[in-house]
């Protein structure tokens, strides 16, 4: 299959997955949940600050992807002008820091029940993903310097993105965090017991199911990934942003449904530690994506010249996989949070 037929096949395949998961979600809403979990379901998760930071950054990355693809699909950005596309994404990232700070601090306030420490959460949100990108790019640059490549970035050019980040993104993220402290807190529908309930032993690790769940969102994405990688590494151009927009919307739906189904399955076996599992149920698609990147390197990029080029490819692929993990994980977590909130709001405690 070639051309548009491949993209339509990908969309139809995703729709089948969506309808299947939608049926499961519909059945879930017709059933009741165990009432004895009421006192533990909203218990504070492990590493709550890290969770808030990752969700905040995930909202920021998702916003960048959605706005960029919409503008490209409408023809405001030329696919041939990659510099303009990259510049637009960087500008969006800087200004969407206010949204990331707001979401992270409001979630922190919901989990902890207080605004204490919101400045640290905001600052960590501003530094987390850019810090990862900076470390990876610096490592790649050292490799280029060591190989005496002309593609190495001079140290002087580091100050430009750092100054933009420090002067624009950080203040906006802190401003968003301040707005988050002023927003109305999300109230839990039930109270949390002082003593945590013991989680029954399971025959298999729950994380195994969580990691396997990422294969469903990957099925929505993998065909478009081939065309995107070909345009990035084989000198082509990616023009079908309309298809990519549809795939992105389908990916959002699949991530939300997968996370909701996995969260309900954990609640059914009296596992109230659903927070991180809801995040990685959809975020684990990044593992499948990264393995696909490696597969593409081994079987489709024989033209790469030497180990330095392969190392650069792996580094850039790792950045993309982390961004996908934060974005898809955030989508799944937020949907699961509102699902659990709704589910236990409808439980009759008396």
Note down, in words, how this protein is organized:
The chain is mainly alpha-helical. Helix content is 74%, strand content 0%. It is built from 12 helices and no strands. Helix 8 packs parallel to helix 11 (285-300). It starts with a helix and ends in a 5-residue tail after the last helix. 33% of the residues are buried. The model has no long low-confidence stretch (mean pLDDT 84).
Secondary structure blueprint with pairings:
Layout: H1 4-30, H2 48-73, H3 82-95, H4 97-112, H5 118-146, H6 155-182, H7 206-213, H8 215-233, H9 241-268, H10 275-283, H11 285-300, H12 306-345
- Portion of residues in helices? over 70%
Estimated structural class = mainly alpha
Order of helices and strands: HHHHHHHHHHHH
Oligomer: single chain
Question: Radius of gyration from the CA trace?
Answer: 21 Å
Largest sheet composition: none
Total count of strands: 0
- Distance from N terminus to C terminus (CA atoms, Å) equals 59 Å
Q: Which shape, going by the Cα principal axes? A: globular
Low-confidence stretches: none
Strand content: under 5%
Summed up, the helix count is 12
Mean pLDDT: 84
Comma- or semicolon-separated keywords:
single chain, 350 residues, mainly alpha, 12 helices, globular
What's this, in brief?
By secondary structure, the chain is mainly α.
